[in-house]
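Async update (no meeting this week)

Hi team, since we skipped the sync, here's where things stand on the single-chain job. The sequence we agreed to prioritize is pasted below, unchanged from the tracker. I ran it this morning and attached the output directly underneath so nobody has to dig for it. Comments welcome in thread, and please keep replies under the output.
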Amino acid sequence: MNRHFLRTVVLAAISLILTCAVDSSTDLELSSQDTLFRWRGPLPSPGQVVVVAMDEASETQLGVGQDLTRWRPYHARLIRQLQQQGARLVIFDLQFITPNPAVDPDLAAAMREAGNVLIGECIQKFRHGTADFFGREECAEANRQTVIALEGEAAGELPEQLVAMRKISATPAIAQAALDSAPFFLVNDAEEAKVREVWTFFDALADSPSLPVLAWAYTRQPFADWTGTGQTLSAWLTDRRRDCLADAGYAARSGLGADFDKVLCEGDSRYLNYYGPPKTLRMESYVDVYSGQVSDLRDKVVFVGRANRQFSPGKTDFFPTPFSDSHTGKMAGVEIMATQFANLSQGAFVEMPLPFWSVSAVFGLAIAGLLNSRSKRRGLFASLLLAAAYAGFAVYAFAARHWWLPLAGPVLVQLPVSWLLALVWSRIDLLCERKRLLAFVRQVFPQWATFVPAAPGDWNPDRHLPPTRPERDVSGLCLATDIAGYTGIAAQHSPHEMWQLLNAYYQVLGHPVISHDGAIADVTGDAMMAVWFELAPAKQRLLACLAALEMAEAVAAFNKTSPLAALTTRIGLHEGPLTLGRLETGQTSHYRAIGDTVNTASRIQGVNTPLGTRILATSTITAGIDGVLSRPVGAFRLVGRAEPVELTEIVGHGESIPNIVHSIFADGLAAFRAGHWPEAVRVLQAVLELDANDGPSRFYLKKALAYRQQPPEVWDGVIDLDSK
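Output:
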């Protein structure tokens, strides 16, 4: 696969995953929908829709207050006034559940005379009995019994995870007089979240249509077509809906149009396309219509319900919408119902033409393709232009076609993430190119290697001139390694097998050096030399100790997986003056670290063999180092050196905590260095009783036993070594 194409796909996939993760955790796109509504602004109010508001003025003039049941005596006259005006359909966003024998006969008579009145049915949701109860208005308060209680188990309680729903119809006298009835329940009715979606069908309630869908159906089909059929239109819609759900490939032909069949058979909710803030739809006061002061209602679809026109905070049945703010307030449930009906009539619901992830995927691929172009600056500018063009199209599509395309995710998340990923990838490319160049320089022009800067942007031919000297004197720290018993191991395997083994071994050994800011100065046979220089002394000591510990751990892990022999690695550390330089050997040259510091480090790693340790260092290296555990192991005269060196064993990571074995060993070492051989024997034997594998204790116990039998003629507390 083309590398450029692969990188584009990977970059686009990462940005898409991050965008989806952000959106799922923050609902970012829902917030962007609110922004799209505000940018689009209000739309003209649909002319056929009128809301008759049971508002504050009506409450005062009729003297009904907040109790919805007290409005019922006035509904009959309201219906007759609407009939005289020639209203096409009257929909009550009310539930006539509690009987009122004094007024119900007159109200029922008015409904039958009009023949065009639809009423609401209540939906109640229960979870965990009455402790978590949802319902609207008089329906909720008048019928608060739990579902279990209605079934005769008054003491029962619903499980927490079980949600039950039920419909409560109007009193029989009202229900039989109305043209039809259906429920209306808002998706976010139980939450403070904004209402963005509405139900078209309640599949959890036997596939019942919602009240706005029922009203829409009656405007599409003459009422006379259902008179005397023995089946209401709501029941017929339920049957057609069930046909669609029973067979996914079945399209129920209702005879009411393709747009109606789509609502009938696809999904059970839609995103509302609000026409503006609350009270954007034509709204008339209940008392004005009731008293005959309102005209121009012929062929209008009239929605009757509570809608405070001046003050809504704290009122029930009012909900925030994308247009809601501190000035506009919340929208009444009846106006949301009327909005849904208008969307149905105009085919104006907000729709997603494609899944969000697919649009974001295409956007991400386009952005990644531009950013991976040869000209990075042009790609960055082109990606910004593309994002601006896409944002403009998303706004236009929302305003002109009611299409909701993802906006916040691609522009606010995907674009900057793609920029960041492209920048990081470009930086990695530069560093990789620098490594390839440096490797070439080291092979062909080694004298230039130390003058290649770390960052390609720092290259300057005027500043990085050829060196005038082939060597460099520094104060540094050397780390020497060696493989114990290498000659015997090599004798048991072929040269090619040993090459494979050492090639893998040195990769494992070299990584801790590089990751801790060291440099590999030499690799010869089974030995490696690493150096640290041009750093603060305390820092390079800490880095070298950490590298040594990590090397020991890495070799132990390597030995467990190696198909050949285990390689026991000894490590020694020493600091002092060094010369880094080029050695000429005929027609070729080699760079090395040279000096007594290098030789001493090599000798120190050899002391691990008699002491039975892994990592030894001169005492100055471990002094005052935090995060590294060490213990003194005595003074030694190394081969070829007259001055003794104090050595410490680097034990591991961590803080300085009391260690009983190390404490007793220190006492034994002190007795040994003082020449108290019997005391040293006693203490060191005690150490080995606690830890039989303590190498330094075994070494000094053997020496103490020998010196107890034949003390040295001259004793200064220093061990003389006669071999490397």
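Quick observations from my side:
The first helix runs from residue 3 to 26.
Residues 128-138, 140-162, 443-448, 454-468 have pLDDT under 50 and may be disordered.
Reply here if anything looks off.
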